[in-house]
Amino acid sequence: MECDQGLLCRFGSWTLLSWLASCLMVFGGALPYVPQYQEIQRSSNTEGFSTRVCLVLLIANILRIFFWIGKQFELTLLLQSVVMILTMFAMLHLCCTVQNTNRVSTKQHRLSDLDFRYFWKWSAFEDYLLFCFGFTVLCAVVTLLLLDSAVFVEMLGSLAVMFEAMLGLPQLLQNFHNHSTKGMSVKMVLLWTAGDVFKTTYFVMNESPAQFWVCGSVQILIDVAILLQVLLYSQDTRVKLG
Fold first, then answer.
1. Distance CA 191, CA 113 (A)
2. Where does it sit, as one GO cellular component term (predicted)?
3. In whole angstroms, how large is the CA radius of gyration of the chain?
4. CA 155/CA 152 separation, integer angstroms
């Protein structure tokens, strides 16, 4: 009897830990953007944050949702995608609001202009919504036509994780272009790193599709590169000021 109670206790503890890990997976990906959101609100400046991070994550998570339709893996990862999409829309809404408030020129850049020079640099938040809606409809039509193809479904998963693996790349390139990390929340990058280490471990332990842990490994490398930029550019700043 005592043995059965011990087994039940251990099973209950494992279930609780598993539930907590799943909750962390669902909402943990959104947490790094809280300090960046607060930084933009505080400074009323978006120059340090690359909105193309939002583009990469929106495409990655929309593709992942359709990958889930073709290959039902953990529900946790599907919910994580929904939370990330909502988070990216919140970031874009804030960036549009701040940029429109600070804009000196009355010139507006809209999706309907079809000017590739201003792709993902639109003035209205509604244009970002419209682009994502169009992309989602396109994915839905193609997925409906090719859902029975195992090759297509695996390719969809590979594309999703390839885009997600490139999450930090726009921020890395923007820092390089600016020769500065000013305006970028270092807390965001540290949370990216911690989250990527956690989720890569989660993928391996839960035997998720190989695409996921490969993606996580690439993200960790990019996170480390951005943290090295923080050290490099902060040293350059001290030298210039000194």
1. 37
2. endosome
3. 20
4. 5
Alpha helices (H) in the chain, listed in sequence order: 2-28, 33-43, 52-70, 75-102, 125-146, 150-165, 169-178, 186-205, 210-241
At residue 65, the pLDDT reads: 93
130 class by beta-carbon count within 10 Å (0-12 exposed, 13-18 middle, 19+ buried):
middle
Residue 52 CA to residue 177 CA, distance in Å, equals 14
Tokens 């993200």 -> residue: 219
pLDDT digits (tens, 9 = 90+) for 147-172: 889 899 888 888 888 888 888 899 99
* pTM assigned to the model: 0.80
**CB neighbourhood size of 105 (10 A):** 5
pLDDT at 4 (0 to 100): 53
Average pLDDT over residues 127-134: 96
CB of 29 within 8 A of CB of 105? no
> Distance between CA atoms of 113 and 101, rounded to whole angstroms?
21
The one-letter amino acid code at 61 reads N
| Residues sharing a CB contact under 8 Å with residue 88, sequence separation 6 or more, in sequence order | 54, 57, 58, 61
Residue 172: name the closest of 235, 236, 91, 229 by CA.
Answer: 229
